[in-house]
Design brief:
- Helix content is 12%, strand content 48%.
- It has one helix and six strands, in the order αββββββ.
- β4 and β5 (94-98) form a beta hairpin.
Length: 114
């Protein structure tokens, strides 16, 4: 019965009946220059345009005990701040600037707020 519900859920999710989480884009090439932190991210138009704001996420994982199956990692993406899109580059990347003192790093991901 448990597998039946899980399979029904997966089919509904794949069919688009249930809302799914948006997809995240990796942050790359972080540069810190005179207190201004910029980075590239694999996010482009039409998702974002110059001047848009994106959410910045970090992934945190912890081990949980699942009973007879032992331990497994449960990971969650949490919003840690926002960044402004300075420019949409031609190579399928956007140039971002962190806001509110956020320090970007290569382990972070971004998602369009729209």
């Amino acid at each position: 019965m448990k597998n039946l519900w899980r399979n029904m859920f997966l089919v509904a999710l794949a069919a688009g009946v249930l809302p799914a989480c948006g997809h995240l884009h990796k942050v790359e090439d972080v540069k810190i220059d005179a207190e201004v932190v910029t980075a590239k991210a694999e996010i482009t138009s039409p998702e974002v345009n110059k001047g848009d704001t994106v959410s910045v996420y970090t992934t945190s994982c912890k081990k949980i005990f699942t009973g007879r199956h032992g331990f497994k990692n449960r990971c969650r993406d949490t919003v840690v701040g926002k960044a402004e899109v300075l420019d949409v580059l031609e190579d399928e990347h956007s140039l971002l600037q962190a806001q509110d003192g956020l320090i970007l790093d290569d382990s972070m991901r971004v998602e369009s707020i729209n």
